[in-house]
TrEMBL record:
Its EC number is 2.4.1.82. PANTHER family: GALACTINOL--SUCROSE GALACTOSYLTRANSFERASE 2-RELATED (PTHR31268:SF32), PTHR31268. Gene3D superfamilies: Aldolase class I. It catalyses: alpha-D-galactosyl-(1->3)-1D-myo-inositol + sucrose = raffinose + myo-inositol. It is an enzyme of class 2 (transferase). Keywords: Carbohydrate metabolism. Belongs to the glycosyl hydrolases 36 family. This is galactinol--sucrose galactosyltransferase. The keyword Metal-binding does not apply. GO terms for molecular function: galactinol-sucrose galactosyltransferase activity. The keyword Oxidoreductase does not apply.
Length: 716
């Protein structure tokens, strides 16, 4: 392999992948599933995508073995995952493509790889679930598996009283009926660790019924409720929906029932004719994490339904009948090892995903499914219609080394995943040292925004900057992805690069230190900038590590051209100029498409830059920045227009902005308006001549929508 630099996405656990950078074959990680090459400093680019052949053989890339392989060779490993399934040649093992635009190249190549490997459709042809536009609360980090009807009620009540009512509820692990295997003999004295895992971990429990446990036996059932008490899930769901105005309620389950599958010997599960299998990890997985040779499922075995469609039908019929709207489906990539005696992981995953997609379509209208723990290509390339998938390892609230890494990993993984699905950047805590960084990251992700706060542990001021009073969130129009200038820079370890992420709000946004970009529907863009240096996932130590505790204050340049829509033809700006607004600095800059503004961040700090095309009419230059109380400032502007006005020899201009939300509206304007109105009613405003900004307060309306008009008298 010969290149200037590369970006790889490779597994770090059986469930998850993370980015890696380098310039030689020796830098390549095991289990690489995506490899983007920068052939020279300014392009062109090439991408290598290992495929799944004949639905049975999954390929990955690995580095050369020291002393055995040519040091410049990238090695292709093909595995079925079952020793009885073998072949000597493969028609579709690797896709290679090249181009001058890395984003177009990745979009087209990943879509082609998915079509060859499993039939996953491109994201743009799928239905995005409408719950993505609703603020959510997930029970996981609030209660872990100690969740109950009473606890959920307390959590929702606390958020409602704080003025940020969730419209989405995710009931995570802990609602199902599960049990341990019955003891066959007393544990031996030298097996204390195994016994401890057996007694304390949910990962060796099996599903004993598709119905909920006793913690959901009444609307006020708590942790003291006997687990065997008859469930009343429908009553619990109806009560929560009525009391809190919930629009979307999801429940968690494993792709194969529960962590250790389904119980083969319980009366409620007899219909599924489960067989107990002892998974064997592939060599590729063991190269990434040798501990999986003795993980819980390997030691305890997994109960596998002989007909997974039967299980899904019964589980989903039960949930839908109880009033549940969708499912979060976890543990997906575990199939890579569960299939070791069932024809192999890739083949087993094909059948499971086909069954899951069909059942979701039948029971949960609107494509209401979140894919999770799913970063094997055995899963990613089989997401035919489901349109949402988690894009990183979990949010770990008590691991300080994980938080900047979490943002960086989501942004880089999104480059690979967003051609097929909308990446979900996971939950976070609003009351947390890293909360502001996480909140800004979710704004540019383009995906769902949900927290997992414990009841009473909230930062409502921060949440109100993300959530509108009606429980909705301001979505970007595209998934957030890294800007071109940080694709091939190690934004966690090189001590010099900020991540920038861009996305389009009403067309765009971006991060730096890592920069991530995206766009909004109104034509503005947002660039997220994050200092993610100092911590990373160590593939050697297999944990998050802090390798530099210093402040590491870094500087980057942010420009409209970081957003591709604004780089081409000045992005539609009539005069080729743009206004940029910094959420952290509260600063306003006017630049041309190639111009820039300087942003400085210390380790763990972040900023959001709203980018708006400048409009010019009769010498008046104006741009609607948006409602600055919201983190996604530009997305509050739904439409904007400015036109010449005046008669009887006078000269003037009129500007109109349609808004969603309330609070302080900020506009850039080279002249002070003569008058401002909100829905036709005159309002006071302030004009700041040095910064050339107009600001006014927009009151809350029942619909959260209003029209602001500004009239200008201009010199003839």
């Amino acid at each position: 392999m010969a290149c200037n630099r590369f970006l790889a996405c490779a597994r770090i656990k059986i469930y998850w992948m993370a980015p890696e950078w380098g310039s030689s074959a020796a830098d390549l990680p095991h289990e690489t599933q995506f490899l983007l090459l920068q052939l020279s400093p300014n392009g062109p680019y090439a991408v290598l995508l290992p495929l799944i052949d004949s639905a049975k053989f999954r390929a990955t890339l690995r580095p050369p073995r020291k002393g055995k392989d040519n040091s410049k060779d990238v090695r292709l490993r093909t595995e079925s995952g079952d020793e009885s399934v073998a072949a000597s040649q493969w028609a579709s093992a690797l896709l290679v493509a090249a181009g001058t635009d890395p984003y177009d190249l990745v979009d087209s190549a990943v879509a082609a790889a998915a079509q060859l490997s499993g039939g996953a459709k491109p994201r743009l042809s799928k239905q995005l679930p409408d719950f993505v536009g609703s603020f959510g609360w997930c029970t996981w980090d609030a209660f872990y598996s100690q969740v109950s009807a009473q606890g959920i009620d307390e959590g929702l009540q606390a958020l409602k009283e704080g003025g940020v009512p969730p419209k989405l509820l995710i009931v995570d692990d802990g609602w199902q009926s599960t049990d341990l295997d019955p003891a066959l003999r007393p544990p031996s004295s030298d097996a204390e660790l195994l016994q401890s895992e057996h007694e304390t971990s949910d990962h060796v429990k099996r599903l004993s019924s598709v119905a909920a446990n006793g913690k959901f036996s009444a609307v006020d059932a708590g942790m003291d409720a006997p687990l065997a008490r008859p469930e009343a899930m429908a009553s619990v769901i109806a009560n929560l929906r009525e009391r809190f105005g919930l629009e979307h309620i999801f429940c968690w389950h494993s792709l194969y029932g529960y962590w250790a599958g389904i119980a083969p010997d319980t009366p409620h599960m007899a219909a599924y004719d489960a067989q107990l299998v002892w998974p064997q990890p592939t060599q590729g997985v063991l190269d990434v994490d040798p501990c999986f040779a003795w993980n819980c499922q390997v030691v305890a075995g997994v109960g596998v339904a002989r007909d997974i469609r039967h299980l899904y039908h019964d589980m989903h019929s039960y949930l839908a009948g109880a009033g549940v709207d969708g499912v979060k489906v976890d543990c997906q990539s575990t199939l890579d090892m569960i299939g070791s005696s069932l024809g192999g992981g890739p083949a087993l995953a094909a059948g499971y995903h086909a069954a899951l997609e069909d059942s979701v379509a039948e029971h949960f209208p609107g494509n209401a499914c979140i894919n999770c723990m799913c970063h094997s290509t055995s899963d990613l390339y089989r997401m035919t219609d489901t349109a949402l998938a988690r894009s990183s390892d979990d949010f770990w609230p008590r691991d300080p080394a994980s938080h900047t890494t979490h943002v960086a990993v989501n942004a880089l993984n999104s480059l690979f995943m967003s051609p097929l699905v909308q990446p979900d950047w996971d939950m976070f805590h609003s009351q947390h040292p890293a909360a502001l960084m996480h909140a800004r990251a979710r704004v540019v992700s383009g995906g769902p925004v949900y927290v997992s706060d414990r009841p009473g542990k909230h930062d409502f001021e921060l949440l109100k900057r993300v959530v509108l009073p009606d429980g909705s969130v301001l979505l970007a129009a595209q998934p957030g992805r890294p800007t071109a200038d940080c694709l091939f820079a190690d934004v966690m370890r090189d001590s010099r690069t900020l991540l920038k992420a861009r996305c389009a709000l009403s067309p765009c946004s971006c991060l730096w230190n890592e920069q991530v970009w995206t766009t909004n529907s109104s034509g503005s863009g947002v660039i997220g900038i994050f200092n993610t240096q100092g911590s990373h996932w160590s593939r050697l130590r297999r944990q998050f590590v802090t390798h530099n505790n210093g402040a590491q204050t870094l500087t980057t340049e942010v420009r409209p051209a970081d957003i591709p829509a604004f780089a081409a033809a000045a992005g539609g700006s009539e005069n080729g100029r743009f206004v940029m607004y910094s959420d952290a600095q509260k600063a306003v800059w006017v630049v041309d498409a190639a111009g820039n503004a300087s942003v400085q961040l210390s380790r763990g700090e972040s900023d959001l830059i709203t980018v708006v095309p400048l409009t010019e009419v009769k010498g008046l230059c104006i741009a609607p920045i948006g409602l600055t109380d919201m983190l996604n400032t530009g997305a509050t502007v739904q439409r904007f227009s400015c036109s010449a006005a005046g008669n009887n020899g006078t000269s003037g201009a009129s500007a109109t902005a349609s808004l969603c939300g309330c609070g302080r509206l900020l506009l850039y304007s080279t002249a002070a308006p003569a008058a401002c109105t909100v829905d036709g009613a005159p309002v006071e405003f302030e004009f700041e001549p040095e910064q050339r900004t107009v600001s006014l307060m927009v009151p809350r309306t029942d619909s959260l929508e209003c029209t602001v008009s500004l009239e200008f008298s201009l010199a003839a």
